[in-house]
Specification:
This protein is α+β, with helices and mostly antiparallel strands. It is built from 5 helices and 8 strands. The protein has a single domain, classed as 3-Layer(aba) Sandwich (Aminopeptidase).
Amino acid sequence: MIVDTRISIRPYRADDVWALHAASVESVREVQPFMPWCRPDLTPEDARRWIEAQRSAREAQSAFEFAIISADDRFLGGCGVNQIDAANRRANVGYWVRSSATRRGVATAAIEQLRRWTFTHTDLVRLELVISIHNLASLRAADKAGAVREGVLRQRLWLHGRAHDAVMLSFVRDAASVV
């Protein structure tokens, strides 16, 4: 677990099912346009299955997903490193924050902590953030966390049956620490 004064990130636990479900349903309006998994008919059973799948993925080192938790232990959202390309030592970064916790720096803090955790605990050298050009809140959070904008990728994301242009941002490990 990584902690700062605002939030902490930690691997999902079995007892996060109800909190994950409630936060997801609360946030459908803001999150679903960019993350199709977040839908109004999401069930606690869907959340339970996803959390269980993340345990297996962590053991296989194919994904590292974390709950974002407030200082008073409230579930605020999730972040993770996934789509790991071990051969090229790169991965995707994803994150979301429940609607009632937005505009407070939660996503930015989670991204910063996730970057630090990844470069400390894995051999990945590149983290990519691929964000729809329409997802202004996510783009702001990535910018504030220090991600470097590399350009716009035309029709890079497929969301709800439609291609979206996406901004590619990244973090790279300090070259001196690459083995």
